[in-house]
Amino acid sequence: MITLTPDPLDRERFPIDEWALSETSYDADSAGLTETLFAIGNGYLGMRGGPEEGYGWHANGTYINGFHDTWAIRHAEEAYAFARVGQTIVNVPDSKLIKLYVDDEPLIVGEAECVHYERILDFRNGTLQRDIEWRTPSGKHVSITSRRMVSFTDRHLAILEYEVTMLDQDASVLLSSQILNRQDWVDEYAASADAQPVDDPRKAAAFSERVLQPRFKRADGSRFILGYRASNSGMTIACGVDHRLTTDNDWTESSQIEDDLAKQVYAVHAEAGKSIKLVKVISYHTTNSVPTRELADRCERTLDRIESRPLEDAFTAQRDWLDAFWARSDVEVPGHAAQQQAIRWNLFQLAQATARTDGGGIAAKGVTGSGYGGHYFWDTEIYVLPFLTYTSPDVARNALRFRHGMLPAARERAAELNQRGALFPWRTINGLEAGAYYAAGTAQYHIDADVSHALSQYVSATGDEDFLIRDGAIDILVETARMWADLGFWREDGTRSFHVHGVTGPDEYTTVVNDNLFTNVMARANLRAAVRRTRGLMQRDPDAFRAMASRLHLHEDEIVEWSEAAESMYIGYDEDLGIHPQDSQFLEKELWDLENTPPSKYPLLLHFHPLVIYRFQVIKQADVVLALLLQGDEFGGDVKRRDFEYYDALTTGDSTLSASTQSIVAAEVGYRDLALQYFNSALFVDLSDLHHNASDGVHVASAGGVWNALVFGFGGMRDYLGTFTIDPRLPEEWESLTFRVTLLGARLRVRTESSSVTLTIEEGASAKVSVCGREVEVFAGRPIRVPLLVDDSPTFEGAPSTSDIEGALRPDGSVITATMPMITERYDETDTPPLAE
Amino acid sequence: MITLTPDPLDRERFPIDEWALSETSYDADSAGLTETLFAIGNGYLGMRGGPEEGYGWHANGTYINGFHDTWAIRHAEEAYAFARVGQTIVNVPDSKLIKLYVDDEPLIVGEAECVHYERILDFRNGTLQRDIEWRTPSGKHVSITSRRMVSFTDRHLAILEYEVTMLDQDASVLLSSQILNRQDWVDEYAASADAQPVDDPRKAAAFSERVLQPRFKRADGSRFILGYRASNSGMTIACGVDHRLTTDNDWTESSQIEDDLAKQVYAVHAEAGKSIKLVKVISYHTTNSVPTRELADRCERTLDRIESRPLEDAFTAQRDWLDAFWARSDVEVPGHAAQQQAIRWNLFQLAQATARTDGGGIAAKGVTGSGYGGHYFWDTEIYVLPFLTYTSPDVARNALRFRHGMLPAARERAAELNQRGALFPWRTINGLEAGAYYAAGTAQYHIDADVSHALSQYVSATGDEDFLIRDGAIDILVETARMWADLGFWREDGTRSFHVHGVTGPDEYTTVVNDNLFTNVMARANLRAAVRRTRGLMQRDPDAFRAMASRLHLHEDEIVEWSEAAESMYIGYDEDLGIHPQDSQFLEKELWDLENTPPSKYPLLLHFHPLVIYRFQVIKQADVVLALLLQGDEFGGDVKRRDFEYYDALTTGDSTLSASTQSIVAAEVGYRDLALQYFNSALFVDLSDLHHNASDGVHVASAGGVWNALVFGFGGMRDYLGTFTIDPRLPEEWESLTFRVTLLGARLRVRTESSSVTLTIEEGASAKVSVCGREVEVFAGRPIRVPLLVDDSPTFEGAPSTSDIEGALRPDGSVITATMPMITERYDETDTPPLAE
Q: CB of B415 within 8 Å of any CB in chain A?
């Protein structure tokens, strides 16, 4: 684990602001990092935070979710059913460029003498602003302010404002606003690969030839549209820009359009004090195959619409959208401004990665970079979907619809792998498996259970049965259950048990094993969910069941088979250690000597051959521990603690997916300080570039993990099959923690203090939750406060033994004010308290 | 297993001839196969058997052992220490071409109307001859005879004779003799890849750009020399040809030389009955880096030398060389002409693959094709070296010297893999690991033990201690023992045992496992050999020991460590089944349903994803069973039989390395018919193209396996640490089997009949062997006949209970004629018979 100083950011350069990330000086060496940290996007369109002037960038990307090209994966040694179709997100034509020349001297941020510099990513306004005072080589002072926005309300829209004012002397000012289709994909990454002698599998594969074929160009006054078709995927894109210059100075304009460049140049005789303001309105439209001419028209319509209204409307709409976002999603940690800022930065990234994916997926880097090739992983379902399910269920539904749309390809992939049912790709953009290294790719069959888990969680939390039945998402449960029933096999070994062999769990430092605990536990839940949902439907709506059964050629015997497999699923347990082995051979392996592994050897994957790593007990990321979280109701408290203790000591945290999970389970089993350390490791993973690759884009799953750690870890919320429980683990240093979750349509604010939990309905009518074992129902306008008993012993238990629940209603409608005993055993519902009746 | 008809060849087309492979008609569809079957070579230079006229070929290759180019392996997903340097044998400039035109009509074998056609690969003359009578489109009859030879005595030399005679009418005859540097590497293989939708990992990787850069050309009369440099490896090659035309007809000549083509054209006014004979003398020289101008001079010298003597001398030398080869290597199965022919074809292939490798390795395909990229594998040590060690020890020594030369690269590779000592590459040409798929490549750590095994066997069989000590081959034992001691680890689990985890055994359908039986057993032998040899040296020659210890930084403690590791090596045993598990989890896996796998699904590797295959108990090739052979003295007879029975039922034989081993152990444990079936599967693997890829080149390891099956299987010879034993298992159908082995410098002929074994010294003074448990010493000029007791029960035991040993000498010098009891328990030497005292 990475140990952090209490506040790992340089506050001189990045002053604390609870609602913004701001920067007071530019550092060319960390351009890659800040391009990521200051990136803006809406889940569909993303622009990295590089300077408008276009120099000194690291990977000056503009990305559109899912806009990719394909390439033939060439395996150095081929084998049957290896992934064939490489998919890589494309750096689309760059429309951010506005080059500035003052007396023919270019402004190159990073080299220029800046008397003043400030860059602000504003979490409430949803804008990136920059304010520079530049002293030109000849000593003239120029003020340059810019504002950049990618709209949450109109996903095809971005707006740039760029204002230049000569402060003390007149000058000739030239603004060259461009759309540039960069044909330097290769160089861009080759450059960073050169800087890094060991190839890094976490980066995007580089294209070796032209990706975007020019198909369309149109210039009309100060409006340009360029259209392209991706060479292999056939996807099409159009980018349109329009310009409006406002100044009291004299000026002339000229323009130019080529296949890979459209340029609008304003030459201004700038008088001191007279500002020059350029507004650049940008629209991108993309499709799988629609001709670019048609996309160009769509761009025109977007541009026309913006032109027809006051520009400020767009910014107001952005603010309104974010106000609503924060109202349902904010998490507050008062008194800890640095953490508060980082929390909001992470939540803002979740908004930027997911808000307008609409029919698309959620990439590992959102739309902030090309890391992992723009691919979708289980990150979506396990790390990001909880946040969406509990704060923005509509967005969660979209993400699950997208996954549902992959079912045909997943069926084909299962057949290729000789399995029945469906096998979702480990990593993909277009639905086909793109993971070329099967041991840490295709072998992660648990993706099926992850998807099912997220779907079950979504339905439990929202009650959206329609999605399951009418939209057919239940097919996911059926086809994944089929896969498990077929993948596993029965063994008679004293008892009859169901085993799953030859799979890789979440821990990619241990691959292709038998009976991986996480996989078996998640597969069991998957099978049970399929049994429960299909049988439930059979009883509730036989016609709908028959329709589904006919569509899926489902026979009732199959459901019996799933149930048997689930209930006989092999769950290993080591009696001597009193823990669950990660897989059937894990505990027999030699222990990696983590203590004597120098920091320079992390992450291990960049310094050791996989065979070396696989030979040892050493863990990249939470595996058993993640099972303890996701299927926590299947494990007793003592074994949870022993499991955590055993595996935590072996965990390198070389994956950014690890820290948040370790934090949550550490909190649950009583390691309060450790939980906070892990939390901070997740919280600052990008802000402090803890994994040295934030330049490739935001670690979106980690951002999701931050929310999970806050809500599930410190907040102590769980949702097992729609039973919402809260058992907080507030860090000692924190006075309070407030989060919001939307449960069955009602938004509940949960405020935890050291001595109580206060529940308030912010939207909707009521919500039922169990706080520290006691069920309460909260109604709008009637907050409830549940006192907690704080245990100050070093091993934090957190379970109160008695409690006052103020504000709760009795069944007869009267309000409780008295103190009553509380259940001390968490999750034990045998002794139902009167309140819950 | 593949079940064969008794004689799987079409005898109309391939008539039986015990000393030749002949063909009576040409079939264009099987051109790839016959190019391989009729290929000629000497271990250094190889020419596939395509027609001189150059049309209708499949992969008209000419190969020089080890002449390769390199390329950067691009892994679809990278990881640390993955193999980086791809190596592929180069199809060198083709000097075989002699195009023939009669009245401007080209002779295209396969399309032409051949009144007579015959092609003969002559095992005693070492020539490929062809005899055609062609009826031209205009109805003229032409006789064309050719003879081709790649010299065993002069490895740089090949000779082509090409004779044309108009039989009935005059005609204009044109002969165009060429050296052609084919720049179509890609097309050649792309074409066959197209025909095969699933990529086949057994083929060579195709080059994507020009490999040979022209560096030199010289024309002098009818002599041409072209020189090239390989683009990346920097290896250089020159090819020189000289021509001599003999005819009574009128003729003119012309020539032409370009970068990729040299051409000598003879235009002859051919009168009926007057022959035209063209002799083309060819020389190739190659080096790692010597300038081509220098190589050209070497070619000139070869050509000059041949020119200076009668041409027939070269053919006589070839015959003499082969007479000697057969004298020391032939195996006779009288009365079974089809098998005899196939046996000699296989032995001839061994000669062609190994005779003049000199300082080079022995590739999987010898010099007959580009399959497996021209790489060297363990095939050399385990499948080919026994033949060489016991019949051509000088060639064996060369092969081991070549391996010894790889030690520096193997040390570096071990370090890359975080191991001490040396780790030989799984596949390579230049010493660097070229195996891009580590699970079935680098993970086969057993390569170290295989090399050590072959070295120990060579030293035991030859007594060549000089090679071990003076030439330093003992370093191999030390560095490999180091690797094992470091790779494994100690576990306390009741008893203290030494385990080797995360390796792949010979069976490539089961990868990256713990405690693979073969690996552990072979590693133990490797460690023991290192202990024995280093301690032996310490006692016998302390100075030499000190020199070695100093060179290798070897401390005596290390030897103790090896010994402890060896003696505590974990050897799994399953009490219930009474067998040795192939690895620690093998027996827990599901059984593959081989019975219901249709033939079209073999080999499994071309029809199932590795993850699917790995999940089951299913075997590509002998693994435990190979351990039973190589370390047979470590296993009791009963468990051997049970192991064989268990694993034989799971073995697909998808590797051609499997059949010969299964045959040997089947013979040993009593499955006489099965042994013969397996033997035939190995014997005809190429001749009947049983694995459908003989077109890629001869399966040289299988050819070695044929000799092993004859000598170790039916002949029943074993050599455990220099103790030579013979316990025959003659197939019921065979009257006798005669083979020769050279033991400690003496050549022993062993003739087994159903009732006796006759031992004769053919060269040298004497040899000691144990026949069916009884030690005998054979002297030159005094053959010994040991009677056998034949057991006709279905379970063949083969051990005689009593015997006459005729001809043997008593210690007092008198000759034994009487009958005496024999030991029935094989390999049990506790009851030493008086004869051996």
A: no
